[in-house]
Amino acid sequence: MAQRPANVKPPAYLTPSPPVPKPAPAKETKDPLGQDPTRYGDWELKGIAVDF
């Protein structure tokens, strides 16, 4: 990351920024009918991707 020039300093009354929290992992849901046919933005028919 780039460093600030020596003459540019934050005011003394500012505290350092807190660390950015890590996002929680997304919960994976199971489709009762199998994989969602639109998971790639297109449909699947007998294993072949079909776009409309």
List the helices and strands and how they pair.
Layout: E1 43-45, E2 48-50
Antiparallel strand pairs: 1-2
Q: What report would you give on this structure?
A:
The chain is largely without helices or strands and 52 residues long. Helix content is 0%, strand content 12%. The protein contains no helices and two strands. The chain has strands at 43-45, 48-50. It has a two-stranded antiparallel ribbon.
List key phrases describing it.
52 residues, little secondary structure, two-stranded antiparallel ribbon, elongated
Would you summarize the structure shown here?
By secondary structure, this protein is low in regular secondary structure. It contains no helices and two strands.
